[in-house]
């Protein structure tokens, strides 16, 4: 991930760190469907970065082209999920692209909507392909809980975005929710967000000190 100025951030993103710990079975989708189970998780939806992907036309045609889900402002996740049941992947650890996050981006401004719709799609996909993806009732319940647990980081991101919009009270509401996270890092960041909301300031300088990219649009100039 890069900063709004196009410079690589000092720390790897959470998805990059998670990817480094995955097995070859998941990364290469071998056997077929190995990546599917991981991609059903909240963390797994970022397994494949769309800007670095090359897809065989024949494979894309087999699934009927890019998959569109009504109301969901992205096509990559539904498409990659369908492809994961069609064949193996080839994975390279080489850096092939970067992505930027800033306060006007679709993912920042519609993060809650995307999360809700993607989680709903994941459960629908599982039901649609239950003959290929076998999960026990307890496994399905754990999958639902996984998406609920991801809400903590989502609340922090929402609070961070709201600080940039100077919506101090709304930001505090999200930071309070995120402060209940099981992850210490999320709790600490949320407490910092609460403090900055009372000071009527955003936390982008603090995020940069931690090696994270700033979301400020003016920082892109």
Give a quick summary of the entry.
With 221 residues, the chain is mainly α. The protein contains twelve helices and no strands.
Largest pleated sheet: none
Q: What's the domain count?
A: 2
Q: Would you tell me the structural class of the helices and strands?
A: mainly alpha
Could you list the spans in which at least 5 consecutive residues all have pLDDT below 50? none
Compute the CA-based radius of gyration. Answer: 18 Å
Write the layout of secondary structure elements.
Blueprint (H helix, E strand, L loop, with lengths): L13 H7 L3 H4 L6 H6 L17 H6 L13 H8 L22 H4 L1 H18 L8 H13 L1 H14 L3 H11 L5 H15 L5 H6 L12
Helix pairs in contact: 9-10, 9-11, 10-11
Structure description:
This protein has helices at residues 14-20, 24-27, 34-39, 57-62, 76-83, 106-109, 111-128, 137-149, 151-164, 168-178, 184-198, 204-209. It is mainly alpha-helical. It folds into two domains: 1-135, no CATH class; 150-213, no CATH class. The longest helix has 18 residues, at 111-128. The radius of gyration is 18 Å and the shape is globular. The two termini are 18 Å apart. The mean pLDDT is 84.
Task: Describe this protein with a few key phrases.
single chain; mainly alpha
């Amino acid at each position: 991930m890069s900063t709004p100025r196009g410079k690589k951030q000092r720390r790897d993103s959470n998805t990059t760190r998670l990817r480094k710990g995955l097995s070859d079975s998941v990364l290469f989708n071998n056997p077929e469907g190995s990546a599917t189970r991981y991609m059903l998780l909240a963390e797994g939806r970022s397994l494949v970065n769309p800007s670095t992907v090359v897809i065989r036309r024949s494979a894309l045609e087999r699934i009927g082209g890019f998959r569109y889900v009504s109301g969901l402002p992205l096509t990559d996740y539904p498409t990659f999920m369908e492809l994961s049941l069609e064949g193996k992947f080839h994975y390279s650890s080489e850096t092939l692209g970067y992505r930027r996050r800033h306060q006007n981006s679709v993912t920042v401004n519609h993060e809650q909507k995307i999360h809700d719709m993607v989680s709903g799609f994941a459960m629908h996909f599982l039901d649609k392909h239950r003959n290929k993806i076998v999960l026990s009732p307890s496994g399905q319940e754990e999958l639902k809980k996984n998406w609920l647990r991801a809400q903590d980081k989502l609340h922090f991101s929402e609070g961070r975005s709201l600080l940039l919009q100077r919506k101090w009270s709304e930001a505090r509401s999200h930071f309070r929710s995120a402060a209940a996270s099981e992850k210490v890092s999320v709790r600490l960041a949320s407490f910092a967000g609460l403090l900055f909301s009372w000071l009527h300031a955003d936390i982008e300088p603090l995020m940069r000190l931690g090696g994270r990219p700033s979301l400020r649009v003016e920082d892109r100039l």
